[in-house]
Amino acid sequence: MGEDASQQPGNLSEVYPHETAVAWLRAALQSSKPTTPWRETTAQYATQLKGACRQINADYDVAGLCRTEFLKRVRLLIDGEGERLRQ
């Protein structure tokens, strides 16, 4: 869409793999969020991110998301004539 995304459908977040990866990261970070995040150091945050990435790699098919999932999602979108992918 270039710089004008006004024509872009709002539900494409279900299709794009990076949206899924961001959701995985948010969920993983939520479970390890410190009670006083404003006091967290950069090193502590890096440790938290590394732990979240380990959790994501253990729990999800990251390689599949990157290699094949996008094309499957596009096919589902086409087959569903643009309807939402979530069930």
Give a structural overview.
By secondary structure, the chain is mainly α. The protein has one domain. Helices cover 57% and strands 0% of the residues. It has three helices and no strands. Helix 1 crosses helix 2. The longest helix has 18 residues. It is elongated and about 50 Å long. 0% of the residues are buried.
- Helicity, as a percent range: 55-70%
**β content, as a range?**
under 5%
Major sheet: size, sense and barrel closure? none
- What is the residue-averaged pLDDT? 82
Head-to-tail CA distance between termini:
27 Å
Domain count: the total is: 1
Could you say which overall geometry the principal axes of the C-alpha atoms support? elongated
Distinct helical segment count: 3
What is the number of strand segments?
Answer: 0
What integer value in Å does the Rg equal? 17 Å
The run of helices and strands is HHH
Low-confidence stretches: none
Structural class: mainly alpha
Provide tags for this entry.
single chain; mainly alpha; 0% strand
Briefly characterize the structure.
The chain is an all-alpha fold and 87 residues long. It has 3 helices and no strands.
Summarize the topology.
Layout: H1 17-30, H2 42-59, H3 62-79
